[in-house]
Amino acid sequence: MHSNASEGGIPANGGVNGSEREHKLELFGFDSLVNILGLKSMTAEQVAAPSSPRDGEDGSIAYERARVNDVKLGTMMGVFVPCLQNILGIIYYIRFTWIVGMAGIGESLLLVAFCGLCTFLTSISLSAIATNGAMKGGGPYYLIGRALGPEVGVSIGLCFFLGNAVAGALYVLGAVETFLKAVPAAGIFRETVTKVNGTMISEPIESPSSHDLQIYGIVVTVILCFIVFGGVKMINRVAPAFLIPVLFSLFCIFIGVFAARKNNPTTGITGLSLESFKDNWSSDYQFTNDAGVPDPEGKTYWNFNALVGLFFPAVTGIMAGSNRSASLKDTQRSIPVGTLAATLTTTALYLISVLFFGALATRDKLLTDRLLTATIAWPFPAIVYIGIILSTLGAALQSLTGAPRLLAAIANDDILPVLNYFRAADGHEPHIATLFTAFICICCVVIGNLDLITPTVTMFFLLCYSGVNLSCFLLDLLDAPSWRPRWKFHHWSLSLLGASLCVVIMFLISWSFTVVSLALASLIYYYVSIKGKAGDWGDGFKSAYFQLALRSLRSLGANQVHPKNWYPIPLIFCRPWGKLPENVPCHPKLADFANCMKKKGRGMSIFVSILDGDYHERAEDAKAACKQLGTYIDYKNCEGVAEIVVAPSMFEGFRGIVQTMGLGNLKPNIVVMRYPEIWRRENLTEIPATFVGIINDCIVANKAVVIVKGLDEWPNEYQRQYGTIDLYWIVRDGGLMLLLSQLLLTKESFESCKIQVFCIAEEDSDAEELKTDVKKFLYDLRMQAEVIVVSMRSWDAQAEGGSQQDESLEAFTAAQRRIASYLTEMKSGAEGEGNVLMADGKPVVVNEQQVEKFLFTTLKLNSTILRYSRMAAVVLVSLPPPPVNHPAYFYMEYMDLLVENVPRLLMVRGYRRDVVTLFT
Prior knowledge:
- Helix content is 56%, strand content 9%.
- By secondary structure, the protein is of the alpha/beta class.
- The model is unreliable at 1-71, 198-202, 795-804 and 831-835 (pLDDT under 50).
- The chain has two domains: 83-195 and 205-531, Amino acid/polyamine transporter I (Up-down Bundle), CATH 1.20.1740.10; 570-794 and 822-909, Rossmann fold, CATH 3.40.50.12370.
- It is a multi-pass membrane protein.
- InterPro entries: AA-permease/SLC12A_dom, SLC12_C, SLC12A_fam.
- It is found in: Membrane.
- Keywords: Glycoprotein, Ion transport, Membrane, Potassium, Potassium transport, Symport, Transmembrane, Transmembrane helix, Transport.
């Protein structure tokens, strides 16, 4: 025993490649162990149906590749430095002192805290999602798409791509403006001279010409584009070097803050002064010109909301680390720690800077000196200029490298065919996507106004952040078994708060920009849902639907459904009683009829087909048939599910289905099938027993039954019918026949018809009283119908005469002859045992007088239908249950006589539940 166990176990050295090992594992039902990482059956499923071209990679291959490349970045260089480089940028250098002057110290602190809280909460959500499994290319697009589905992922991903592309233009313009400020002589056109009104400073303020910004911006963008084409590996190696001058310039700025009073005799710079701190505490919102200089005649009025839009790009960039997940040594640890550390560090830097800048200079100096950080820098302003230019160019390079990869990742997922031009093979540069990104960037540079571009960038980034927060909120709230993030410091309420903050900030900035960005995302979502290829990424909505379905199912309970809430759930037999081509999984008119049983398409149908044979032998056939049937249901626009059952016979298959199909109160309540009109023509002797058995099983299982005669002539949705829908209401059926007639009227093909209700009464009953009662009942049910009472008299062929009765009489006598012949055969085969016949496997004694009575009654009903309803669009009649002690063959004769010469007939049998109610 011990030796066998040790042989079957996995050896301590972990060897898994030997043929002997694979052979021994056959005992467990697996072919072999996957090299190093796991079971082949698991990876094979992923390869068979990859969620994207990148997802189909074998886990072991990815593992080996990681070992070969040996690219292992830690938290500092892999996450913290890229995030810091992307967060610290142009806004801090050029606009931050101006924001402090405009909003005052108090509201500036609130502004920084508000925006910082938004990105902090987003970082927590990002940390949770990023540590819930391996991340692939696409960054936030990958996270959002896998959590909220391909439609939401692509719509937000494309908006995020636009945001990154436009942000590249923002960084380029910032670098060019800084360069022209530092070297005014480089300007080609005359500089714009802004007169200062209403301030203490008398000298004019110069700002670069917009044409210079456009020309230099286009040149810089083209140069950066060439650098990107030159190779991303070099950019990634050089990128950290861009951060060193930035940090050094920050160091010089803070030294300059403390030494400002001695080293800066410039007007307006007071040094760290309590008086300046008090003067600058409150806000001073006012009009400015396009250059941001205070001007009572300016076009732009600034308030807190507008400053949120201007400042928010200064806190973006938290996704930079997650985009490098493939190069990290420990993704599960580095992304949360690095991203949150960068977010907290920059937020603390901004808060401290607000206090220092507010105490450093007068408000006029803060509002008019756009490069105050360079003015106060120690030992000379050039350090800050170099820091600004390098930081903005580095950030622009990151945008021009990250945005094309984001677009290529969306294209590679093959959701939108229109994006196939931007696809890039693994390991290849996305050149076309890079050119497209550069084109967008140049278009934004031509606009030339920084303050017009920043709100656009802000909207797209906020849209992406809200998507990340909503993804974490949904996953955390559903708490599916696969939701096991290593980052434990998260909660769905924090994610919901983060998403709400993102939306609030969007509307604070500009409701018009918000509406435009949401409309753009909605249009992309709608376009993807129509034109996109379906992809099952295991998104959170699938889990939400599942849990919602479970809760709804439990809330329905197992009690009887109230008639007001009753919906038909038909169980439709797709291929009984008649041959269909192999490539047609369901009779087309059955699908049309199923739609007629729903009001405005609401409701669920279960399409069932039974395969004869052994389940072990035909399991694969059943899967293929189920897939084919499901595709056909979608093609016919039927809301329903496909089920294929393998059974030794149709009768046994149906008996299993009628007992087990469905869950709780979502079990099918109506069995729909075609009437077997071909049984006598093709001499199918097994049909009567199967047909009667199915009806009896439905009665025992308390299912309603609808049998369609004349299915081939049933109209589709485009064939308009005229005339009447005639109901022969014989027995109480819970109102099912009435309800079916009303559902037919809701369809275009039957909406021009009128309903006639024929009440079959006994000859000695009060017909007028019955008619009054039925009319009152229909009025209370809100149903419009003409009521006709027909009295059934004893059958008398001589008295009735006429061609209709002649047709019925001929069918009647033919049925009599066949039944007599059947009885003679059975008597001769019973070897002298008398009138003993078998019905449903049991011996029965046939009462020939009762058989004659059933034939008479059926004939009379058929004659009545032919007399009143020969021109009806459709006739509904109560389905008589199979009589006890009558062989199945006899019941088929009764049914044939009932449907004789009626072109389109529905035989309806209700069940012991009301499906309509008088009460509101």
